[in-house]
Amino acid sequence: MTETLTEGLKRKLEIVVPASELDSRLSARLEDLKGRVRLNGFRPGKVPVAHLRRLYGKATMAEIVQELLNENARKTLEERGERAALQPSFDLPEDEGEANEILTGKKDLAYTMSYEVLPKFALGDFRGIKIERPIVDVTEAEVDERLQQLAKDSRPYEAKEGAAEDGDRLTISYLGKIDGEPFEGGADENAFVVIGSGRFIPGFEEQLLGATAGEERVLSVTFPENYGAANLAGKAATFDVTVKEVASPKDAEIDEEFAKRFGIESLDKLKEALRDQLVSQFGAATRQKVKRQLLDALDEKHQFELPPTMVEQEFNNIWGQVEQDMQRSGRSFEDENTTEETAKADYRKIAERRVRLGLVLSEIGEQAKVQVTDEEVQRALVDRIRQFPGQEQQVYEFYKNNPDALASLRAPIFEEKVVDYLLELADVTDKTVSKDELLAEDEDEKAA
After folding, report:
1. Is residue 380 part of a domain?
2. Strands 109-116 and 10-17, sheet pairing
3. Of 138, 131, 137, nearest to 430 (Cα)?
């Protein structure tokens, strides 16, 4: 083994595995295979190894080479006392003739292993970080407001004769077309439209004013420039609509029976449930604000060299999402008062911050012996599976067979546990704020 590059966090090693070791491993593997393979014309366990070598030698040697790469990488890192930032990469002989000699055990395997090491850094003093925790006291007025909104959202409708008015609910079937051709996702046989709700494309609901049950109309609309489906954004469309029913809203009586409609035994219990929802919602927002302050403080206390490939991967993930969002919304960098070059520089800083904080949190968690249990990962997996109704088995198999995917469930649990550990050591001061103050989100928070 020869080290050919030590530059910052980058390492490159030349490694040679003698042909004798390759051939020895191949012989042992074929000998083991001899007792298990079944070939026509040979009794079990009596297939000559030379015959097996002709049939399976190259494929088996390819497996051995892959195992050796991983085995040598693990041993090398252990011996050097290094931790790779990402899986090492291997440069193998590309010449077909040379590769064939290696796979037949006639030539040494010489290859290059390249990797980046995790940086070694001293942790800044993270004890006593000052945190101002914004707290919202849930008032009766806020509970009543949520109750009134629930009553409005769940109010009953009653079929009526005559023309549709603002606030009425129409049951319709529709078929959407662009340039006279139906488009995917543009049809429904039993859709509810509440006029004035603003839940449909601008102009759609308004054109149903005055409609009556049984009436057919053709609506002309234009999809917004920032519409979620990029293939429809900004395009003119028509909708062939048949009105099946017109219904007017009725005021919901907020009483014991109203609560029972939601499977709750009494109105007081419903108010308790709504209060708990608000407490949970405000609590999550408080947690986010506190975590942001904590991460900002940690970021200020740590500056060290970052593994370039980790930063590049994080940047690519972020930038890919930015491009998708801009394509979906139909907006440009000029619309955001910036340029692509400036935006990339800004997002690269965010990628660097994420990588740096990830390494800092990991180091703190390791020193504090923070552990994530298998039960916690299993609960996270169950929650993830529930997000894909009808595909539960496929999602389960995906995570079961992909260690990296399973690790992606473990990572956020670990991070939150480290944050909890740090908050126990922080100097936290509570501050009562309004709901609007708590839920306000500035641009820095969005970026973070």
Report:
1. yes
2. antiparallel
3. 131
Q: How many CB atoms lie within 10 A of CB 251?
A: 9
Model confidence at 185, pLDDT cuts 50, 70, 90, reads confident
Residue 361 to residues 247, 364, 374, 405, 427: CA-CA distances in angstroms?
56, 5, 20, 20, 18
The verdict on residue 126 lying in a domain is: no
Q: Is the pTM of this model over 0.85?
A: no
Nearest-angstrom CA–CA distance, 272 and 146: 11
Burial class (CB in 10 A: 0-12, 13-18, 19+), 412: exposed
- Is residue 293 domain-shared with residue 387, that is, in the same domain? yes
- Strand intervals (E) in 277-380: none
Which structure tokens are listed for 438?
A: 């708590």
Q: Domain containing 22 — which CATH number?
A: 3.30.70.1050
The answer to whether residues 288 and 436 belong to one domain is yes
Exposed/middle/buried for 109, CB within 10 Å: 0-12, 13-18, 19+? Answer: buried
Question: Are residues 276 and 296 both part of a single domain?
Answer: yes
- Which residues touch 321 (CB under 8 Å, ≥6 apart)? none
Q: Quick one: 293 and 274 in the same domain?
A: yes
21-79 confidence digits (pLDDT tens): 998 998 888 888 877 777 777 777 767 778 888 888 888 889 999 999 999 999 999 99
> Would you state the pLDDT for residue 445?
54
Both 272 and 233 in one domain: the answer is: no
* End-to-end CA separation in angstroms for the chain: 43
Which stretches of 37-178 are assigned E, i.e. beta strand?
89-91, 109-116, 130-135, 157-159, 169-178
Residue 212 token pair: 């009556």
Which CATH number characterizes residue 201's domain? Answer: 3.10.50.40
* Residues spanned by the domain of 11: 2-116
Taking CA atoms, 317 is separated from 240, 340, 409, in Å, by 41, 16, 17
**H or E element: which one contains 316?**
helix 308-329
Contact residues for 101 (Cβ-Cβ < 8 A; gap 6+): 107
Residue-wise burial string across 34-63, b where 16 or more C-beta atoms lie within 10 A, e elsewhere = beebeeeeeeeeebeeeebbeebbbebbee
Task: Tell whether 320 and 402 lie within a shared domain.
Answer: yes
Tokens of 361: 């949190």
Number of domains in the chain: 3
With respect to residue 148, please indicate whether it lies within any of the assigned structural domains.
no
Residue 143 counted as domain residue: no
Q: Is the dihedral of CA 90, 96, 102, 104 positive or negative?
A: positive
